[in-house]
């Protein structure tokens, strides 16, 4: 294949990244508007959290269909549909006044969001040489997370100045501009603008998914994503603010700054991890396991600390939690090196479900435990109830680590059987 110029590669990557950043922005744009949303739709805090749960549910549930659609219709087409869906739904969210319609619009945003990341990763694997993909993948995941900062700062400003409808319509407008850019610039591969895979019967779909799932590398990728990401997703999307304010006695301003540190840690460590896994692919899972142990240890110190944790400890916690994000991307690299191109997107979709399923389970578990440990129907959760609730993470880490070890052993055995080894991991050269 003719090598595309570096400039063209970077242009395609930049536009794909802009689409993903926009998806993260749309996904996070409700986090700063909680109070306005409660007032606008006349809903309680519990109903507000259904938005987040629904969003995670839709995201996770869409991953396999989206992966299959990409393998069949190409990443460009699916990415454009996803971006258009987010624009229309976000515009609808700006205009509707009832809770059920608002929920329907958030589902639309969630479906569009679910289509974005897997498309961008699939496109990268066609545009860049295999040795560059780990770094480009990390850069995409890392820089894309800044969409959450864009959602936090300018969105708060827009809500305060031009109001709900103006702020969400502006967000939709920005999305439309990025969508147009994607329409003009993106191509599935350097040679083919609109790639189409073979039509798939239901049996074909079943066989392809079963083959991806049967590969130990896909399974290892799934469990890496499952185990490393949920702490940061859950804190960022819902429980971080109440945990820091009610559970750790921090002011609202301190809590906001601490949560922003998660994104700073993502930005700082993502590229380093990309370089590491590109150079020592054999130890991708070792790095993921190290991050999981660090998460477990740091959370243990915070939860066992007598009284409120000191600020330095919460700073460390946010950094370690942030590192979990880039660590989860290791899962995608395992998916890439374990599956052929024609089922790469569906394998990526399977892996991408891991962290979001775990986050959904955790969001629900924290809510249930908080209610269980708080007397009556009060939502004045105590620091003690937050300790119990946050400790539910250890169940997910326990299950995840066991599976991680199991599938890492099998993946390594398979690589050795195929003639590879520590110095020579197939698909990484
Ligand atoms: N693990 C995340 C991305 C990430 C990278 N660094 C921090 N987080 C992930 O799976 N992303 C999928 C998505 O749609 O955001």
TrEMBL record:
<feature type="transmembrane region" description="Helical">
    <location>
        <begin position="311"/>
        <end position="332"/>
    </location>
</feature>
<feature type="transmembrane region" description="Helical">
    <location>
        <begin position="49"/>
        <end position="70"/>
    </location>
</feature>
<feature type="transmembrane region" description="Helical">
    <location>
        <begin position="168"/>
        <end position="187"/>
    </location>
</feature>
<feature type="transmembrane region" description="Helical">
    <location>
        <begin position="257"/>
        <end position="278"/>
    </location>
</feature>
<feature type="transmembrane region" description="Helical">
    <location>
        <begin position="388"/>
        <end position="407"/>
    </location>
</feature>
<comment type="function">
    <text>Lysosomal dipeptide uniporter that selectively exports lysine, arginine or histidine-containing dipeptides with a net positive charge from the lysosome lumen into the cytosol. Could play a role in a specific type of protein O-glycosylation indirectly regulating macrophages migration and tissue invasion. Also essential for liver homeostasis.</text>
</comment>
<comment type="similarity">
    <text>Belongs to the major facilitator superfamily.</text>
</comment>
<keyword id="KW-0812">Transmembrane</keyword>
<feature type="transmembrane region" description="Helical">
    <location>
        <begin position="285"/>
        <end position="305"/>
    </location>
</feature>
<keyword id="KW-0458">Lysosome</keyword>
<dbReference type="InterPro" id="IPR011701">
    <property type="entry name" value="MFS"/>
</dbReference>
<dbReference type="InterPro" id="IPR036259">
    <property type="entry name" value="MFS_trans_sf"/>
</dbReference>
<protein>
    <recommendedName>
        <fullName>Lysosomal dipeptide transporter MFSD1</fullName>
    </recommendedName>
</protein>
<keyword id="KW-0813">Transport</keyword>
<dbReference type="Pfam" id="PF07690">
    <property type="entry name" value="MFS_1"/>
</dbReference>
<feature type="transmembrane region" description="Helical">
    <location>
        <begin position="142"/>
        <end position="162"/>
    </location>
</feature>
<dbReference type="InterPro" id="IPR020846">
    <property type="entry name" value="MFS_dom"/>
</dbReference>
<feature type="transmembrane region" description="Helical">
    <location>
        <begin position="222"/>
        <end position="245"/>
    </location>
</feature>
<keyword id="KW-1133">Transmembrane helix</keyword>
<feature type="transmembrane region" description="Helical">
    <location>
        <begin position="77"/>
        <end position="97"/>
    </location>
</feature>
<feature type="transmembrane region" description="Helical">
    <location>
        <begin position="344"/>
        <end position="368"/>
    </location>
</feature>
<comment type="subunit">
    <text>Homodimer. Interacts with lysosomal protein GLMP (via lumenal domain); the interaction starts while both proteins are still in the endoplasmic reticulum and is required for stabilization of MFSD1 in lysosomes but has no direct effect on its targeting to lysosomes or transporter activity.</text>
</comment>
<keyword id="KW-0472">Membrane</keyword>
<dbReference type="InterPro" id="IPR052187">
    <property type="entry name" value="MFSD1"/>
</dbReference>
<feature type="domain" description="Major facilitator superfamily (MFS) profile">
    <location>
        <begin position="12"/>
        <end position="412"/>
    </location>
</feature>
<feature type="transmembrane region" description="Helical">
    <location>
        <begin position="103"/>
        <end position="121"/>
    </location>
</feature>
